[in-house]
Design brief:
By secondary structure, the chain is an alpha+beta fold. The chain is built from eight helices and 30 strands. The N terminus is likely disordered. The structure holds zinc ion (2 copies).
């Protein structure tokens, strides 16, 4: 475009000059160094700050790909100050944030209104305050317009979040049951706009079992291994996946007896059922003997026979008491004890057995407020499969990123299938697959119907449902997590 300017010169003669107005000729997304331009559409790691420690030349190729304010270079064809506007244009498939969400969390906004800038006198400008929303899986480009009607578009950027996973496994047999790979975790999170990078694993000393009072010692052992891990260097975006083995709680001194038993040479062996009230469940039910959980710890405490006529009590040796497996497939699960009474002096009376039994097996340990996630690798003497462990890790990372949101604080809006602790399970979860409007969602029937990984108990589904998937994409993890 051209314009005309006239002025009086010293000679008093009027001259007319044709002055060319500057035109927008180039817009680029910077790719690290200020003279390097992003050659193709790229990714933007919106949770990471512009620090060289994040540039790995694999997923993050330059400083320019860090942060939610990518730098943009604008050039006009002539020197001089020129005015232009900029805004970000979202791809139509991006999850869109509601006004409520943007009010609660300003990081959910992107620069959607045109903003006016002026070039420097060189006719160029590097913009460093144009911002994208900090969710993932959103594609944007920037549109820049000069005042003469020229509009140019930048290359496209897809927003991603990066999380580093530091696994800490136990040495010895306990460690062998830990998941071999977290590939399912990585692929599910990729769908939600996260790059999960698994760091070199660390080990901690074996703990055969973590009982009711062992959580603190478990945590400090994990922490010790974590201090020298790569995960430590990736704070605050590292999550620690600690593998536990059995999480069994025992009860000692449980007394079982059988009356009117004939003993002595030729008498048949008797069987005593192991059953009783649990600490958490008062109903009388089958119990399993405390065996093969901690080396050197036996289920057997004592056994004796009291003759009903004489009142004489005779001890029964441990070698005459045999734990009977419930089935061959799980030989350590025993809820019956067979007692050979043929070695006792002949008589009739009561056999009393004192045992240690498994009060309960816990599904996991909870360490809120830090970057630690725990995965139980064994329950009831059986290893959890790698698939089951991946499912648990997906669920627990889900909680760390803010799932399932209830529309409070910096979180996205409440999902349609949200339920909280008042309707069963501790925490906020998803009842997708279960009819809505129930008073509770934690029955066995509910579990069988549920089909989202964010349901409140394991259900063999490792994917986010349609609602949770949108919420996971929207989540803001820019603050990261405090280290354990
Ligand atoms: Zn949960
Ligand atoms: Zn869901």
């Amino acid at each position: 475009m051209t314009g005309k300017k006239s002025f009086e010169c010293a000679s008093g003669k009027e001259h007319t000059f044709v002055v060319k107005q500057a035109k927008l000729i180039q817009v680029e997304i910077l790719d690290g160094a200020e003279d390097k331009f992003l050659p193709n559409n790229g990714s933007q790691f919106v949770n990471l700050d512009r620090d060289n420690k994040w540039v790995d030349n694999k997923s993050v190729t330059s400083l320019g790909r860090l942060g939610f304010k990518p730098k943009i270079y604008v050039k006009f064809d002539l020197p001089g100050v020129s005015e232009f506007t900029l805004k970000a244009i979202p791809d139509g498939k991006n999850p869109s944030y509601t006004d409520d969400e943007k009010t609660r969390n300003s990081l959910f906004k992107f620069i959607e209104e045109e903003k006016t800038y002026q070039t420097e006198s060189s006719g160029e400008l590097v913009i460093s305050d144009a911002f994208l929303s900090v969710g993932g899986k959103s594609t944007f480009h920037f549109e820049i317009k000069d005042t003469q009607g020229t509009t140019l578009q930048t290359k496209k950027l897809e927003t991603l979040r990066k999380i580093f996973v530091q696994q800490i496994k136990m040495t010895g047999d306990a460690g062998k049951s830990a998941a071999g790979s977290i590939g399912t975790v990585e692929s599910e999170y990729k769908k939600q706009g996260f790059v999960i990078e698994s760091l070199p694993e660390k080990t901690m000393p074996e703990m055969e079992n973590i009982g009711a009072n062992d959580s603190a010692s478990y945590k400090s052992a994990v922490k010790k291994a974590y201090q020298s891990s790569d995960g430590k260097k990736k704070e605050p975006y590292s999550l620690v996946v600690g593998y536990t083995s059995h999480l069994a709680v025992k009860t000692s001194g449980r007394q079982l007896s059988k009356t009117n038993v004939s003993v002595g040479p030729g008498s048949s062996a008797i069987t005593i059922n192991v059953a009783g009230p649990g600490k958490t469940n008062p109903a009388v039910r089958t119990k399993y003997l405390w065996q093969e959980i901690v080396s050197g710890e036996s289920w057997f405490e004592s056994a004796s026979f009291k003759d009903a006529t004489s009142g004489v009590v005779t001890a029964i040796d441990e070698k005459y008491c045999t734990a009977i497996a419930v089935n061959a497939a799980n030989p350590n699960a025993s809820s019956k004890v067979k007692i050979d009474v043929s070695k006792l002096p002949r008589g009739t009376g009561t056999v009393t057995l004192k045992v240690t039994w498994v009060d309960r097996m816990r599904a996991g340990l909870s360490f809120g407020g830090s970057n630690l996630i725990c995965v139980c690798t064994k329950a009831w003497w059986k290893n959890k499969s790698s698939a089951q462990q991946n499912e648990v890790i997906i669920h627990e990372i889900g909680h760390k990123i803010g799932m399932v949101p209830g529309g409070t604080g910096k979180l996205p809006d409440k999902t349609d299938t949200f339920y909280d602790s008042s309707k069963g399970h501790v925490g906020t979860h998803c009842h997708h697959g279960i009819p809505a409007g129930q008073a509770r969602y934690d029955s066995a029937t509910d579990a069988a119907l549920s089909d989202c990984v964010m349901y409140g108990s394991t259900n063999s589904h490792s994917a986010f449902c349609e609602h949770c998937s949108v919420a996971a994409k929207k989540q803001d993890i820019n603050s990261g997590w405090p280290a354990l």
